């Protein structure tokens, strides 16, 4: 179990007063984030009190408060009333199971939500036609949603579905996969491509993270049992909230 003194010592080695630029609270924010990213502080560990951090590091309580508040807004820390400030849980997602966002969040005891940003029906762009194996210009249904868990923004998703499988975006209430299931078109297999990106101005704002924060870009093409593509979704997950877990086994030869 990590002690307050260990955390303070670790922060001291980062010498926030003489390292980096920008306001002091931003530098403390980055240092605290680094302590978490380096695994010194782990999920559910308590942070030292605002007063202890301020006294021990020789900085003002306002600076500490601003840094903590920014990390709460980023979703890195959670404040529990009367108990203190803790490292927030990360959502772990297994790579091998094909699940929906709604299922993933419910499994983790969180309340999934979606805020609609766009619902349209239109003609497939060349990129969409290629991803969905459609002739150019075929009609598609498009959904752009901010996905939330316990009201906290988690990911921005842009899904494109052949209109033949989903006649209108209004068919979707909370879950796209539930809507597809009603038409017996729930995907059975998917291919995912992941890469690291940075959030730019607009996406950062929608997700409530600082400009230039880490993002995990995921592209999913999913298929019906007979191999017909049913979904082409581009998602930007908050890099600080999502862990993808891949189970691996040694070749049994
Ligand atoms: C995940 C996938 C998306 C998929 C979505 C469906 O987030 N990355 O490709 O469209 O789940 O989730 P739901 O059924 O909750 O809308």
Provide the descriptors you would attach to this structure in a database record.
two-stranded antiparallel sheet, Chorismate lyase, 6-stranded antiparallel β-sheet, 10 strands, 8 helices, binds 2-amino-2-deoxy-6-O-phosphono-alpha-D-glucopyranose, 2 domains, 253 residues, elongated, alpha+beta, Arc Repressor Mutant, subunit A
Describe the structure.
The protein is α+β, with helices and mostly antiparallel strands. It has helices spanning 4-13, 24-37, 50-57, 61-74, 101-107, 126-132, 176-182, 201-207; strands at 77-80, 84-87, 91-94, 112-123, 139-149, 152-162, 189-198, 214-223, 229-238, 242-245. It has a six-stranded antiparallel beta sheet with strand order 4-5-6-9-8-7. A two-stranded antiparallel sheet has the order 1-2. The model has no long low-confidence stretch (mean pLDDT 90). The site of 2-amino-2-deoxy-6-O-phosphono-alpha-D-glucopyranose has 14 residues, from α5, β6, α7, β8 and β9. 2-amino-2-deoxy-6-O-phosphono-alpha-D-glucopyranose (GLP) binds at residues 100-102, 157, 159, 175-178, 218, 220, 231, 233, 235.
